[in-house]
Design brief:
By secondary structure, the protein is an all-alpha fold. 79% of the residues lie in helices and 0% in strands. The chain is built from 4 helices and no strands.
Length: 91
């Protein structure tokens, strides 16, 4: 069984016509520009209405870490969990 690279596969048996690809690219570019413009326009309003959101995130992450410490720390596997993670990262 031979494998083909993606560009060769698309040239051999195109899934989309050239017009569909052009439309998709134009739509994506227009969508990104529109979303960016709307975000910049509403940035001041977001700062006013969502002031405390970072603290909610900190609280949620702290609670999650506490649950992990309780789960893995009580049975003595917390040390081995960090050791396995270091091995996974290659440290």
């Amino acid at each position: 069984m031979t494998t083909m690279s993606l560009p060769l596969l698309l040239l051999k048996d195109p899934m989309f016509s050239q017009g569909q690809i052009i439309f998709g690219v134009c739509f994506f570019v227009a969508f990104v520009i529109l979303i960016s413009f709307m975000y910049i326009k509403d940035k001041k309003l977001h700062r006013k209405n969502y002031k405390g959101v970072p603290w909610i995130l900190v609280g949620f992450l702290s609670f999650f870490v506490l649950l992990l410490i309780i789960k893995f720390g009580l049975d003595g596997t917390l040390t081995s969990l960090f050791y396995d993670f270091k091995i996974f990262l290659g440290l």
